[in-house]
Amino acid sequence: MKRELKRERSKRKLLETAKALIREKGCTQITLQDIADRSGLSKGGIFHYVKSKDELLGWVLRESLEETDRRFQKATEREKKTFEEPMREIAAGLPNLENPDDAGNRVFMYMLGKCDIPEVREQLRRFYGHSLQFSKRWISAGQEAGVIPRSVDADKTAELFVLISMALRVRSFMEAEDRAFGSGDFAALMESLLQPRNP
């Protein structure tokens, strides 16, 4: 148990250090040596967890998704038959999609620029797959609880939500002044599609 706890702490330190350096220097400028120096882990020790900087960046990208899933799971454990609290947990993370300083958004854009590299493309493919998996699972959980109608197509709706979230990440790096659709609108769209009102 001690070994597992130490491993989990080292992974957390690695992840937090990478996020801090991404915010400070950007994805292109950081190296595994920078991460080793800042975290106190040896470079060899880092290789016990990841094979490359790009794999570590993939962790950063998936972390916010996994955190949202943890909050969603806790909310559904507390309130199994409600829509509002689990939806609130999902909606709470949506503003980060519009933040160009968010480490996950920076990694996403960095990886899009390097998607001709097979390892990076694989990290993006995994992230997309995980995003779809979580989104579909959240919708299916709502359907099982009876708070989302079975008529909602979980596959199509989950993919729509993932595509919109990725578009918001990309747009966060553009200096667009006229933004007619933001994270609040996305949350409202989710609610309207998941809980359609009968006329």
Describe the structure.
- It is a single chain.
- The protein is mostly helical and 199 residues long.
- It folds into two domains: 1-49, Homeodomain-like (Arc Repressor Mutant, subunit A, Orthogonal Bundle); 53-194, Tetracycline Repressor, domain 2.
- The protein contains nine helices and no strands.
- The chain has helices at residues 2-25, 32-39, 43-46, 53-78, 84-93, 103-113, 118-144, 154-171, 183-194.
- The radius of gyration is 18 Å and the shape is globular.
- The model has no long low-confidence stretch (mean pLDDT 90).
List keywords for this structure.
199 residues; mainly alpha; Arc Repressor Mutant, subunit A; Tetracycline Repressor, domain 2; 9 helices; globular
Can you summarize the main beta sheet?
none
Which fold does the CATH topology of the largest domain refer to?
Tetracycline Repressor, domain 2
**From N to C, what is the helix and strand string?**
HHHHHHHHH
- List how many beta strands DSSP finds: 0
Q: Radius of gyration over alpha carbons?
A: 18 Å
